[in-house]
Amino acid sequence: MPGIDDVARLAGVSTATVSRALSGNGPVSQTTRARVVQAASDLGYVVSSNASSLASGRTRNIGAVVPHLSRWFFTSVIEGAERVLLRRGYDLTLYNLSGDGDERQRVFEHHLLRNRVDAVFAVSLELAEQEVSRLLALGKPLVGVGGPLPGVSTLRIDDVAVAHLATDHLISLGHRHIAHIGASHEFDLDFHIPTSRRLGYEQALTEAGIPVDERLHRAADFTLPGGYEAAKQLLGTPHERPTAIFAASDEMAIGAILAARDLGLSVPRDVSVIGIDDHPLAEFFGLSTVAQHPVAQGERAAEILLAALDASRRGGAAGRPDPVSHVAPADLIVRSSTAVHP
């Protein structure tokens, strides 16, 4: 089996240069790196992860912590992050916290704190101060996706702004009797995203001179069945029926479209519907939405995390960059579920 000495001879460089070129640690010109990679490929040489970890003190493994995997958003963020990490030669270990509180404690107090991961990114999780401080104290950079975390670089969309954008689209079409399917405190999970989206909805109405009517709000659990039941309540009484619905997620918006059809209503002739996400099913249902691009969020989060890891490697705690809150772009996508109010 070929070794690092064989690669060095074939590439005409030192073994130290081979190590730097293949690990990504340390300065190597692009030309030299390409020559080393080609030599390693020609010889069939594969870097030993164990040897690399011993030499560098790094595992080249990133930990991703998610609340559960049943929602498309979380898996999409992971997909985007993994693309970037694989290109940089990193593995990804996924920790799914859909179990009980003891499971979260085991992950943060055992798995992540041992030398199993070099860095961590958390998706849609509000982390306790102790969870954050213990990771940073061990030199493990941390990035959050989905909301603000004190002392940690984060990537998120502006939930108030995207809800305002969705509602304003309905207002621009002439709708004034606009319902909202959002969430109650029961479903207002980490980062209070449902509350922020309701606030954006109400701000858009107020700015347009439209009174906020509590009777036009229904709480649901951000699922398609939840949106279906909420929409049936809103649309079931003809003389109080809204002409448009803004749902705080695409899954609830799709549920609203199905409820309208089951009640014999036409979307968008009788009721316009808009959501937030750009869920994979949104285009199939012709759903207007505000896209938050979760795959791109995952890619950007991984880039931020790797930059923090590189800075930490170069300068230790002193080289740790100051935390920055990054706002990811979101875009209005207009499809057939919304139309001008006659």
Radius of gyration: 25 Å
DSSP strand count: 12
| Rounded average pLDDT | 88
Q: What is the chain-wise order of helices and strands? A: HHHHEHEHEHEEHEHEHEHEEHEE
Structure, explained:
This protein has 342 residues and is α/β, with parallel strands linked by helices. It has helices at residues 4-11, 15-23, 30-43, 49-56, 72-87, 101-111, 129-137, 159-172, 193-207, 224-235, 250-262, 294-315, and strands at residues 61-66, 91-96, 119-123, 142-145, 153-156, 178-182, 217-219, 244-247, 272-277, 288-291, 325-327, 331-333. Helix 1 (4-11) packs across helix 2, helix 8 runs parallel beside helix 9 (193-207) and helix 10 (224-235) packs across helix 11 (250-262). The longest helix has 22 residues, at 294-315. The model is unreliable at 49-57 (pLDDT under 50).
